[in-house]
Amino acid sequence: MKSPLLASKLCEIFGKDGEITVRRMLAAAAGDYPALVKGVSDFIDAADQLVQRFSSLHQVQADLSGDAFSDWNLKTGRIDSGKQWKTLLDYADADLEDSIHAWRLLVQPDDLQAFNAAVVAHARGESRFFQAECRLKSKTGSWKSLFLKGMVAARDAAGEPVRLLLLHRDITEFRASAVEAESARVSAEAASRARSFFIANMSHEIRTPMNGIIGMTDLALDTQLDAEQRHYLKTVKSSAESLLSIVNDVLDFSKIEAGKLRFEKIPFSLSSLVFEAVRNQAVEAHKKGLEVIVSLSPDVPARIVGDPTRVRQVISNLMGNAVKFTEQGTLSVTVSVEERGADFVLLRFAVRDTGIGIPVSRQGAVFEAFSQADDSTTRRYGGTGLGLSICTHLVQLMGGKIWLDSAEGQGSCFYFTARFSVDSAVEDEVKESRFDGQRLLLLEGHPALAEQLAMLLTDCGVQVTVIADPQEALAVLKKTQTLGFPYSIVMADAHMPPPAGIVLAESWKSLGYPGKLIMLLDTEQQRQHLKRLRELGVDAHLVKPVAREDLIEALQSLDGQREAEDLLLDSFVFPEQFSGNESEQVEVLLVEDNPVNQELAQRLLIKRGYSMTLANNGAEAVECFEKAHFDLILMDVQMPVMDGIEAAESIRSREMRRSWVVSQEFRPVYIIAMTANAMDGDRERCLQAGMNDYVAKPIKPSELYAAIDRGLSDGQGSEDDASALRTLTETSLDLRAAMRDLGDQDLLQTMAGMLVSEWDQHLSRIQSDLTEKNAEKLCMDAHTIKSLLAIFHGEKARRMALELEHAAKQAEGVDWGHCVQLAATLAEEMAQLKPEMEHFVRDGSLR
Ligand code: ADP
After folding, report:
1. How far is the CA of 357 from the centre of ligand 1 (A)?
2. Taking a C-beta distance cutoff of 8 angstroms, is the pair 150, 165 a contact?
3. Distance (Å, rounded) from C-alpha 469 to C-alpha 539?
């Protein structure tokens, strides 16, 4: 073997490094050339054998794995060894040449380009191996997907690759199943989205009639019913409510899944929201005898910016569970600041109960959809298992997290955090209310509640003593009275055993204690005992859970007997004002297209004795307006044919024309918008269209009545009263109506006696207010007379007193001459009423 030949053979097998080694060996052994040649030749044979064994080993490995292994000679273009690649493509050996060219012809052109690029990069030394995925045409004509991996096995003297080892792996089936899986995933996602949209739409459709059912049942429950009927209707209502809550859950869940959940950013009072959410559930909790405590850390901002509906939803859900899974003990909700930044706050909410708890093994699962801690078919508690899953999503979307701390049989505490912006503009405005110098004895047996109330009271400047034992409390009361240093206020929980609790309220007057009594009630006691407490003359009551604002209001109501008396009178007068004679003259136009809402609004209006005309859309409303007079229009906003905005604009422009004709007699009709989209923008649009007020749908009776009352009292200034007075020519009291309102003749007679005995004082107070030109006092004194006259339905005189009250309130300056005139006519009118009143006081006969 000649040395150049040997060198190139070695180079072929071992590459460039091999050649260099051989050359070095040749140079070193120049003395014994034949021996060296023999040695090297033996070495080459051994190496050849080694390579053969090595590649047959690879072949076995390839056979076993189903892979095909081949050795490409780049110089000759032949595939020197390894023919299984043909088998992989279903060819017999004879079908194809053993050439790289034949191989290339089978490869899908795009894939071949990628393969070439990978090989070139590898040959340049950019990677240890090259690999690519290529489709090759099989004998049957179908494409087979092959995974190819290889490396340059030898290079020539110039460093160019001369041999390539290549592994073929058939991945056709794997690819097909991956494609299948991908298309299955895509169609599953599409199906899931379609299902979510369907559920969302359906839930919405179900919710509308459900609101109708609940609203109507509420109305029916307000009518005269026997016990059995009441029971049936209450069951209808509670079933409808639980169905609605399930529908709401499903709706939210599908909205989350469909990625359709939107979050608002509006400022709201956190304290009001938390209390409102908890109070809704407190009724159920109190029925079970559970204590409910809510406390917000003092550093929690008063107003924050976020989505109040979603926060309420999470709290309600956690509270609902706490009530459901607790039979005795206490539920508490606390809010504290977790982190505060320049313009944000991360709040931590905790809802704690003393209920059944959740075993550690189930604690993770309860946050999953449709999952419950007790998954047995015989479980005691109902529910869908959706609530916590929804909460988890909502909380995440509010930049927070949710977790729990619980042990079986030892209650649970659910925590969640949420991020909000801070409404700093309003935060500074929170008004401080101080009651410095007031001493209060708190009779409370529940330590946590006592602590919370004491903290709130101390915060307002009140000096608090807490006593948990009723006997001890009575002893303290006696002692402080004897010492002439009584507490100014006693606050007592109605839940305590005698002689505290309700018994204390019953014996309070007879104790003769000089301080005022505030009773703390839960909602169940409020339902059962409030009437009795009023009869007993208890000074004030607070309903648990107690908010700081409630406490301040109660303390303020105790401040000054006079104010309290006024409040009492107002509460007598208010409900009757619109159920008496006035209401019969009120003409209302109801514009609403939805039959359920029509029915609901109609019932509410009829209940107040208003006379009502119905229009099914805006166009009908304008037509009705043209034909008749209305005091008030209730206008739905979204309606077919002509919407509420357009109708209101059209009515206002007609009024403009009319006002030219009828001059000062003209008064625009009061329009109240009703709309489902309770957004600020809607309100603006309604007001811009000339509507006066706004109620959100679904209609809540209290809100609708409040808006109507605003409407009916609006513009009842002197001008309006003057025209109304012209129609009220007859001077009289309507004692029968007064009797109907009060339902207790003795009480009415006593009150009449009180009024008669103070008759002259009332009038002389007005006279001295006029002499002193004290507008504020005049306004108050006229208000008192007005309220008293309203009790006895002395309508003409009441309106005169009202007119005087308004005249004293004129912002631009009081017209004292006018006030003197009004006071004189009022005195004259009252003088005519006095004999009738005296007659009633004497013999109690109703004319
Ligand atoms: P639902 O109450 O409708 O079943 P949730 O997702 O709200 O659905 O709750 C899932 C489960 O977590 C409940 O079924 C209950 O097993 C468990 N759970 C939730 N809150 C409490 C709690 N306060 N005390 C005990 N178990 C609870």
Report:
1. 10
2. yes
3. 22
